[in-house]
Amino acid sequence: WYSLQQATTTETNQNHRFDTYDQPSMKTSIPGPRSQELLQKLKQIQDVSAVQFFTDFQKSKGNFIVDVDGNRLLDVFCQIASLPLGYNHPKLIEALLNPDNTGVLINRPALGVNPPAEFPNQLHQSIIDVSPPGLKNITLMSCGSCSNENAYKMGFIWYMRKRRGGKPPTAEELESTLFNKLPGTPKLSVLSFDGGFHGRTLGCLSSTHSKAIHKLDIPAFDWPTAPFPKLKYPLENFQKENEQEEARCLDKVKQLISEYENKGCPVAVIIVEPIQAEGGDNHASASFFRQLRKIAKATGAAFLVDEVQTGCAATGYMWAHESWQLDDPPEMVTFSKKMQLGGIYHKDEMRVDESYRVFNTWMGDPSKLVLLEAIIDYIKQEDLIGLAKESGKVLQFGLDNLALKYPNIVSRSRGMGTFCAIDFVDSQTRNKIVTDMKNNGIMVGACGDLAIRFRPALIFEPYHANYVIDKFDNVLSKH
Question: What is the pLDDT of residues 234-247, one digit of tens each?
Fold first, then answer.
């Protein structure tokens, strides 16, 4: 494999469009002594079981994260897929230091009641400028969970408005809903998929099915859960089997919708991720999603696409669902992570006209819009969507070859752009490899029971991909 350490100075410099650092540099094992010291201090006041190490954000730059012990790692996980331009990008620093932005940084407005004068233009130049096809309405939120939670509410309100024929709610509905009773509090459901992850708030947890520990001890709604296709790889070798698997899952979707209609809890919303990220990077074909969209339309359910992790260019599309080439856009698309704040794109008909129904104090964060505007400008300026495709091909090619070279350890390499993953023979081996990769200067993440996922920044280049594969090969060779 090509390696940064093997590259000539000229070749390396030519490729360094975005990075200050040349390569990883490891001084201690992970976590190092300073991280362990801070871990003990933090442990006194909160749970730290998920903390891997403490970061020196001043020294972290570009694609490289630096910890408090001086270890420098090539980061292909990027704060759980939320850093679009890596660390300390000059364009983002410039945006934050612009004195014109001081007002919204110091005085965070309640955007639903007192938005700043520049707010409409900010939205048009950032959020609306990259909106999915056919969706020009936006409701801002703060994170992915609250985006999905409020999209469910928006879907329920839309569904009941249709059921009433546009008439206002009755006095009985208004009175009964204060006590969580019919008819004001209707029995409606959200159909989701096994392996899906949509957040950790109450409604979202009822539609999340990736890890039991996320849901344990938390009351849940009786909502339907459909099977998500379990595709066989390589795809070209299992076309017929995968088509049959997708047809089986779609048939189950129809069956569940009918079943819940008959039990008096009709499906008002169907939610799906373009790639089931937390659940293990599970893919389905564009045909599957087109059929699912038709089912939603035919049964009167809102089609909600959760792009919290897949959105913002990493898949080689601004929005992963663009690859489905839908005839009719989804009713709603949610986002967060790389977009820096949360929100719901939606059709005109989904707009909630009454005040305070889909609402919170902040309704987004204009300081994040400052960053997002700079991020979107840079994505366009440097064609980072094209770069995600280019680097993704290199990364995917390397993973495919590692699956051939180590068939007893890894399999099912898959990806879209740089949004890639590979499975391991068991969870124990996967977890050991994640640790070994970190100690070899590569920060990766796990997902599902068996997968390692790759979530680099949009400034991740082909030579970075080659370097990651080179290190991955070296780590696998020792197992």
Answer: 999 999 999 999 99
Task: Name the strands in the sheet holding 137-141, side by side, starting at the edge strand that comes first in the sequence.
Answer: 137-141, 342-346, 332-335, 302-306, 267-272, 189-193, 225-226
The Cα–Cα gap between 307 and 330 comes to 12
The structure's pTM equals 0.95
Calculate the average pLDDT of the chain: 95
Q: Helices marked H in 353-439 — which ranges?
A: 366-381, 384-405, 427-439
The CA dihedral of 306, 312, 317, 323, to the nearest 10 degrees, is 10
pLDDT tens sequence across 4-28: 344 333 344 445 688 889 999 999 9
Beta bridge partners of 25: 72
Q: For residues 305 and 236, give the distance between their C-alpha atoms in angstroms, rounded to a whole number.
A: 26
Find, among 222, 220, 282, 294, the residue nearest to 254 by Cα. Answer: 294
Distance CA 26, CA 432 (A): 18
Q: What are phi and psi of 391, to 5 degrees?
A: -65, -35
- Residues annotated as part of the active site: 197, 306, 337, 361
DSSP H or E run through 414? strand 410-416
- Which residues share a beta bridge with 423? 411, 451
Quick check: 208 and 196 in contact, CB under 8 A?
yes
Q: At residue 460, does pLDDT exceed 60? A: yes
Q: CA-to-CA distance for 241 and 239, rounded, in angstroms?
A: 6
On the question of pLDDT at 307 being above 60, the answer is yes
> Which of 357, 356, 293, 364 shows the shortest CA–CA distance to 335?
364
E strand or H helix at 424, and its extent?
strand 419-424
> In whole angstroms, what is the distance from residue 127 CA to residue 33 CA?
42
